[in-house]
Design brief:
This protein is an alpha/beta fold and 282 residues long. The protein is built from 10 helices and 8 strands. The chain has a single domain, classed as Alpha-Beta Barrel (TIM Barrel). The radius of gyration is 17 Å and the shape is globular. The protein binds 6-hydroxymethylpterin-diphosphate (HH2).
Length: 282
Protein backbone atom coordinates (compact mmCIF):
# COMPACT_ATOMS: atom_id res chain seq x y z
CA UNK A 1 0.00 0.00 0.00
CA UNK A 2 1.17 3.54 -0.73
CA UNK A 3 1.53 6.12 2.08
CA UNK A 4 -1.66 8.18 2.65
CA UNK A 5 -1.72 11.94 2.34
CA UNK A 6 -0.23 12.36 -1.13
CA UNK A 7 -3.37 13.90 -2.59
CA UNK A 8 -7.03 14.63 -1.92
CA UNK A 9 -10.08 13.53 -3.93
CA UNK A 10 -11.07 15.95 -6.70
CA UNK A 11 -13.45 18.74 -5.63
CA UNK A 12 -17.12 17.68 -5.71
CA UNK A 13 -16.15 14.00 -5.77
CA UNK A 14 -16.30 11.55 -2.89
CA UNK A 15 -14.50 8.35 -2.09
CA UNK A 16 -16.65 5.80 -0.28
CA UNK A 17 -14.29 3.50 1.60
CA UNK A 18 -15.54 -0.06 2.15
CA UNK A 19 -15.63 -1.40 5.73
CA UNK A 20 -16.97 -4.97 5.55
CA UNK A 21 -17.74 -6.41 8.98
CA UNK A 22 -18.38 -9.88 7.55
CA UNK A 23 -16.76 -13.32 7.57
CA UNK A 24 -17.40 -13.89 3.86
CA UNK A 25 -17.12 -10.71 1.73
CA UNK A 26 -15.55 -11.60 -1.58
CA UNK A 27 -12.28 -9.67 -1.23
CA UNK A 28 -11.79 -8.97 2.48
CA UNK A 29 -14.13 -11.40 4.28
CA UNK A 30 -13.03 -12.10 7.85
CA UNK A 31 -10.37 -9.37 7.99
CA UNK A 32 -12.51 -6.82 9.82
CA UNK A 33 -15.06 -9.01 11.63
CA UNK A 34 -13.58 -7.99 14.96
CA UNK A 35 -15.06 -4.52 15.75
CA UNK A 36 -11.64 -3.25 16.81
CA UNK A 37 -10.16 -4.19 13.41
CA UNK A 38 -13.13 -2.68 11.55
CA UNK A 39 -12.86 0.63 13.42
CA UNK A 40 -9.11 0.76 12.77
CA UNK A 41 -9.77 0.07 9.08
CA UNK A 42 -12.38 2.85 8.96
CA UNK A 43 -10.00 5.28 10.62
CA UNK A 44 -7.27 4.34 8.15
CA UNK A 45 -9.54 4.84 5.11
CA UNK A 46 -10.70 8.24 6.43
CA UNK A 47 -7.08 9.38 6.80
CA UNK A 48 -6.45 8.22 3.23
CA UNK A 49 -9.23 10.50 1.95
CA UNK A 50 -12.53 8.61 2.21
CA UNK A 51 -15.34 11.16 2.67
CA UNK A 52 -17.78 8.32 3.31
CA UNK A 53 -17.20 5.07 5.20
CA UNK A 54 -19.61 2.38 4.01
CA UNK A 55 -20.14 -0.12 6.81
CA UNK A 56 -21.73 -3.46 5.84
CA UNK A 57 -22.55 -6.62 7.77
CA UNK A 58 -23.98 -8.82 5.01
CA UNK A 59 -22.04 -9.96 1.98
CA UNK A 60 -23.83 -9.56 -1.35
CA UNK A 61 -21.22 -11.46 -3.34
CA UNK A 62 -22.66 -13.82 -5.97
CA UNK A 63 -24.08 -16.88 -4.23
CA UNK A 64 -24.14 -15.30 -0.75
CA UNK A 65 -26.96 -16.39 1.55
CA UNK A 66 -28.92 -14.01 3.79
CA UNK A 67 -27.81 -12.94 7.29
CA UNK A 68 -30.32 -12.54 10.13
CA UNK A 69 -31.26 -9.07 11.32
CA UNK A 70 -29.89 -9.79 14.81
CA UNK A 71 -26.54 -10.92 13.44
CA UNK A 72 -26.26 -7.97 11.08
CA UNK A 73 -27.01 -5.55 13.93
CA UNK A 74 -24.46 -7.29 16.14
CA UNK A 75 -21.78 -6.85 13.46
CA UNK A 76 -22.31 -3.28 12.33
CA UNK A 77 -23.72 -1.23 15.21
CA UNK A 78 -20.67 -1.29 17.53
CA UNK A 79 -18.52 -0.24 14.56
CA UNK A 80 -20.83 2.62 13.56
CA UNK A 81 -21.08 3.84 17.16
CA UNK A 82 -17.31 3.90 17.52
CA UNK A 83 -16.62 5.50 14.13
CA UNK A 84 -19.30 8.15 14.78
CA UNK A 85 -17.24 9.27 17.77
CA UNK A 86 -14.02 9.58 15.75
CA UNK A 87 -12.74 12.96 14.60
CA UNK A 88 -12.47 13.51 10.85
CA UNK A 89 -14.28 14.83 7.84
CA UNK A 90 -16.38 11.82 6.84
CA UNK A 91 -19.97 10.58 6.87
CA UNK A 92 -21.02 7.06 7.75
CA UNK A 93 -23.08 4.99 5.38
CA UNK A 94 -24.87 1.75 6.27
CA UNK A 95 -24.81 -0.89 3.54
CA UNK A 96 -28.03 -2.76 4.26
CA UNK A 97 -31.37 -3.73 2.76
CA UNK A 98 -33.05 -4.16 6.16
CA UNK A 99 -35.28 -1.53 7.74
CA UNK A 100 -34.33 -2.25 11.33
CA UNK A 101 -30.58 -2.30 10.62
CA UNK A 102 -30.90 1.05 8.84
CA UNK A 103 -32.96 2.50 11.69
CA UNK A 104 -30.47 1.56 14.42
CA UNK A 105 -27.53 2.61 12.23
CA UNK A 106 -29.09 6.06 11.68
CA UNK A 107 -29.73 6.29 15.44
CA UNK A 108 -26.05 5.45 16.00
CA UNK A 109 -24.62 8.11 13.72
CA UNK A 110 -24.96 6.93 10.10
CA UNK A 111 -26.15 9.61 7.63
CA UNK A 112 -26.48 7.57 4.43
CA UNK A 113 -28.40 4.37 3.60
CA UNK A 114 -26.79 2.30 0.84
CA UNK A 115 -29.39 -0.24 -0.27
CA UNK A 116 -28.32 -2.66 -3.02
CA UNK A 117 -32.01 -3.49 -3.59
CA UNK A 118 -32.97 0.16 -4.19
CA UNK A 119 -35.74 0.04 -1.52
CA UNK A 120 -37.32 -3.12 -2.98
CA UNK A 121 -36.40 -5.63 -0.24
CA UNK A 122 -38.16 -3.53 2.38
CA UNK A 123 -40.24 -0.72 0.84
CA UNK A 124 -40.77 0.66 4.38
CA UNK A 125 -37.15 1.76 4.30
CA UNK A 126 -38.13 4.68 2.05
CA UNK A 127 -40.30 6.24 4.78
CA UNK A 128 -37.47 5.93 7.29
CA UNK A 129 -35.01 7.62 4.91
CA UNK A 130 -37.56 10.38 4.28
CA UNK A 131 -38.30 10.94 7.97
CA UNK A 132 -34.62 11.13 8.92
CA UNK A 133 -33.58 13.28 5.96
CA UNK A 134 -30.86 10.72 5.22
CA UNK A 135 -29.07 10.35 1.91
CA UNK A 136 -29.86 7.15 0.08
CA UNK A 137 -28.01 5.24 -2.63
CA UNK A 138 -30.32 3.34 -4.99
CA UNK A 139 -28.48 0.51 -6.76
CA UNK A 140 -29.49 -1.67 -9.68
CA UNK A 141 -29.40 -5.44 -9.24
CA UNK A 142 -30.94 -8.09 -11.50
CA UNK A 143 -32.46 -10.80 -9.30
CA UNK A 144 -30.88 -11.50 -5.91
CA UNK A 145 -27.32 -12.30 -4.80
CA UNK A 146 -27.94 -16.06 -4.54
CA UNK A 147 -28.82 -16.35 -8.23
CA UNK A 148 -27.92 -13.07 -9.93
CA UNK A 149 -24.91 -14.35 -11.89
CA UNK A 150 -26.82 -17.27 -13.47
CA UNK A 151 -26.96 -16.15 -17.12
CA UNK A 152 -28.02 -12.51 -16.68
CA UNK A 153 -29.54 -11.12 -19.87
CA UNK A 154 -30.69 -7.72 -21.15
CA UNK A 155 -31.77 -6.30 -24.52
CA UNK A 156 -29.84 -3.11 -23.75
CA UNK A 157 -28.24 -3.16 -20.34
CA UNK A 158 -27.70 0.61 -20.09
CA UNK A 159 -31.23 1.66 -20.99
CA UNK A 160 -32.72 -1.04 -18.74
CA UNK A 161 -30.57 -0.01 -15.77
CA UNK A 162 -31.39 3.63 -16.44
CA UNK A 163 -35.15 2.96 -16.58
CA UNK A 164 -34.92 0.93 -13.36
CA UNK A 165 -33.08 3.72 -11.53
CA UNK A 166 -35.57 6.33 -12.75
CA UNK A 167 -38.45 4.15 -11.56
CA UNK A 168 -36.87 3.55 -8.12
CA UNK A 169 -36.10 7.25 -7.83
CA UNK A 170 -39.78 8.05 -8.55
CA UNK A 171 -40.80 5.52 -5.86
CA UNK A 172 -38.47 7.09 -3.28
CA UNK A 173 -39.72 10.59 -4.08
CA UNK A 174 -43.36 9.43 -3.85
CA UNK A 175 -42.54 8.07 -0.39
CA UNK A 176 -41.28 11.49 0.67
CA UNK A 177 -37.52 11.27 0.06
CA UNK A 178 -36.15 14.59 -1.22
CA UNK A 179 -34.70 14.19 -4.70
CA UNK A 180 -31.48 15.94 -3.67
CA UNK A 181 -30.82 13.16 -1.14
CA UNK A 182 -30.65 10.43 -3.79
CA UNK A 183 -27.58 8.86 -5.33
CA UNK A 184 -27.79 6.34 -8.19
CA UNK A 185 -25.58 3.31 -8.82
CA UNK A 186 -25.64 0.98 -11.85
CA UNK A 187 -24.61 -1.96 -9.63
CA UNK A 188 -21.47 -3.24 -11.30
CA UNK A 189 -21.32 -7.04 -10.92
CA UNK A 190 -24.90 -7.44 -9.67
CA UNK A 191 -26.54 -9.66 -12.29
CA UNK A 192 -24.16 -8.64 -15.09
CA UNK A 193 -21.70 -10.36 -17.40
CA UNK A 194 -18.24 -8.95 -18.09
CA UNK A 195 -19.60 -7.27 -21.22
CA UNK A 196 -22.58 -5.76 -19.33
CA UNK A 197 -20.19 -4.25 -16.76
CA UNK A 198 -17.95 -2.83 -19.46
CA UNK A 199 -20.87 -1.35 -21.34
CA UNK A 200 -22.17 0.31 -18.16
CA UNK A 201 -18.79 1.95 -17.53
CA UNK A 202 -18.39 2.87 -21.22
CA UNK A 203 -21.84 4.50 -21.39
CA UNK A 204 -21.99 5.78 -17.81
CA UNK A 205 -22.77 9.28 -19.09
CA UNK A 206 -26.27 8.00 -19.93
CA UNK A 207 -26.87 7.18 -16.25
CA UNK A 208 -25.25 10.49 -15.22
CA UNK A 209 -27.77 12.25 -17.50
CA UNK A 210 -30.57 11.32 -15.07
CA UNK A 211 -29.23 14.25 -13.05
CA UNK A 212 -28.32 12.74 -9.66
CA UNK A 213 -24.78 11.94 -8.41
CA UNK A 214 -23.70 8.54 -9.72
CA UNK A 215 -21.90 6.04 -7.50
CA UNK A 216 -19.61 3.51 -9.16
CA UNK A 217 -18.31 0.38 -7.47
CA UNK A 218 -15.91 -1.65 -9.61
CA UNK A 219 -13.45 -2.25 -6.78
CA UNK A 220 -11.72 -5.67 -7.01
CA UNK A 221 -14.75 -7.18 -8.78
CA UNK A 222 -14.48 -10.44 -10.67
CA UNK A 223 -14.82 -8.99 -14.18
CA UNK A 224 -11.52 -7.14 -13.55
CA UNK A 225 -9.88 -10.46 -12.69
CA UNK A 226 -11.28 -12.10 -15.83
CA UNK A 227 -10.00 -9.27 -18.04
CA UNK A 228 -6.53 -9.48 -16.47
CA UNK A 229 -5.72 -13.13 -17.06
CA UNK A 230 -7.58 -14.49 -14.03
CA UNK A 231 -6.08 -12.36 -11.27
CA UNK A 232 -7.39 -12.83 -7.72
CA UNK A 233 -9.13 -10.17 -5.61
CA UNK A 234 -5.95 -8.82 -4.05
CA UNK A 235 -4.46 -8.12 -7.49
CA UNK A 236 -7.25 -6.15 -9.12
CA UNK A 237 -6.22 -2.64 -8.09
CA UNK A 238 -4.97 -1.70 -11.60
CA UNK A 239 -8.38 -2.66 -13.03
CA UNK A 240 -10.14 -0.79 -10.23
CA UNK A 241 -8.14 2.33 -11.05
CA UNK A 242 -8.63 2.03 -14.81
CA UNK A 243 -12.41 1.74 -14.53
CA UNK A 244 -12.66 4.42 -11.82
CA UNK A 245 -10.74 6.90 -13.98
CA UNK A 246 -12.97 6.16 -16.97
CA UNK A 247 -16.06 6.55 -14.78
CA UNK A 248 -14.75 9.88 -13.49
CA UNK A 249 -14.32 11.12 -17.03
CA UNK A 250 -17.91 10.07 -17.80
CA UNK A 251 -19.27 11.98 -14.80
CA UNK A 252 -19.31 9.61 -11.77
CA UNK A 253 -19.16 11.49 -8.47
CA UNK A 254 -18.82 8.80 -5.79
CA UNK A 255 -16.31 5.92 -5.94
CA UNK A 256 -16.92 2.92 -3.67
CA UNK A 257 -13.51 1.31 -3.21
CA UNK A 258 -11.42 -0.83 -0.87
CA UNK A 259 -8.06 0.80 -1.78
CA UNK A 260 -8.67 4.44 -0.96
CA UNK A 261 -5.17 5.96 -1.02
CA UNK A 262 -4.36 4.59 -4.46
CA UNK A 263 -7.69 5.56 -6.02
CA UNK A 264 -7.49 9.08 -4.55
CA UNK A 265 -4.12 9.62 -6.23
CA UNK A 266 -5.36 8.23 -9.53
CA UNK A 267 -8.50 10.38 -9.51
CA UNK A 268 -6.56 13.51 -8.50
CA UNK A 269 -4.30 13.08 -11.54
CA UNK A 270 -7.16 12.13 -13.85
CA UNK A 271 -9.32 15.09 -12.83
CA UNK A 272 -6.43 17.51 -13.20
CA UNK A 273 -5.97 16.15 -16.72
CA UNK A 274 -9.64 16.26 -17.69
CA UNK A 275 -9.97 19.78 -16.29
CA UNK A 276 -12.27 21.50 -13.82
CA UNK A 277 -15.49 21.34 -15.84
CA UNK A 278 -16.74 17.89 -14.92
CA UNK A 279 -20.35 18.67 -14.04
CA UNK A 280 -22.31 19.43 -10.85
CA UNK A 281 -21.24 18.42 -7.35
CA UNK A 282 -22.12 15.32 -5.31
N1 LIG B 1 -20.84 -3.51 -4.22
C1 LIG B 1 -20.80 -4.35 -3.16
C2 LIG B 1 -21.54 -4.07 -2.00
N2 LIG B 1 -22.28 -2.95 -1.91
N3 LIG B 1 -23.06 -0.92 -2.85
C3 LIG B 1 -23.11 -0.07 -3.88
N4 LIG B 1 -23.83 1.06 -3.80
N5 LIG B 1 -22.42 -0.30 -5.05
C4 LIG B 1 -21.66 -1.43 -5.22
O1 LIG B 1 -21.09 -1.61 -6.32
C5 LIG B 1 -21.60 -2.37 -4.13
C6 LIG B 1 -22.32 -2.08 -2.94
C7 LIG B 1 -19.95 -5.59 -3.24
O2 LIG B 1 -18.66 -5.34 -2.78
P1 LIG B 1 -18.10 -5.72 -1.32
O3 LIG B 1 -18.83 -4.96 -0.27
O4 LIG B 1 -16.63 -5.58 -1.28
O5 LIG B 1 -18.38 -7.27 -1.19
P2 LIG B 1 -19.45 -8.12 -0.37
O6 LIG B 1 -20.79 -7.78 -0.91
O7 LIG B 1 -19.03 -9.53 -0.66
O8 LIG B 1 -19.33 -7.75 1.08
Amino acid sequence: MIEPGGSRPPADHLIMGVVNVTPDSFSDGGRYLDPEAAVARGRELAVQGAGVLDVGGESTRPGAGPVSEAEELRRVIPVIERLAGEPGDFDLSIDTMKLEVARVALDSGARIVNDVTALRFDPGLAALVAERGARCCLMHMLGEPRTMQKAPSYDDVVSEVKAFLEQRMAFAIAEGVAEEKLWLDPGIGFGKTVEHNLELVRRLDEIVAIGRPVVIGTSRKSFLGKLAGGRGEEHRLPGTIATSVLALERGAKVFRVHDVAEVVDALAVASATVGPDMGAGA
